[in-house]
Amino acid sequence: MNLIEEFNEYRGQMNDKILAQDNKVLKRIFNLDTNAFAEGSIDTKSKEMIGLACSMVLRCDDCVKYHLGKCHEVGLTKAQIFEVFSIATLIGGTIVIPHLRRAAEYWELLDNQ
After folding, report:
1. Domain 3-112 CATH superfamily
2. Are 33 and 67 contacting, i.e. CB atoms less than 8 angstroms apart?
3. CA distance 49 to 106
4. Domain segments of the chain as ranges
5. 80: Cβ–Cβ under 8 A, 6 or more apart, which residues?
6. Tens digits of per-residue pLDDT, 7-34?
7. Tens of pLDDT along 46-55?
């Protein structure tokens, strides 16, 4: 199993376990997240780029992987992704660089699958 499959499988399994607890607050947070990234006044591609940039600035590697996967699904190009990387690194500062490295590696995996 590769890194992408491993990440998606783990994420799915844990989300299922969490949601199975039937906690109203957690279910609403998950639903809010789903609805926030749905097509609306802002297109899905733009929302995923925003999500990716914010995740990089907040230094959440799992979130970065998730949004990279979504960016790949909606058809963003490598050039577009690297523009998002540049904005996130500018805003977040040099502390984002280790996350940038892992993000570039993960994008390469997505592109080569």
Report:
1. AhpD-like (1.20.1290.10)
2. no
3. 15
4. 3-112
5. 49, 71
6. 999 999 999 999 999 999 999 999 999 9
7. 999 999 999 9
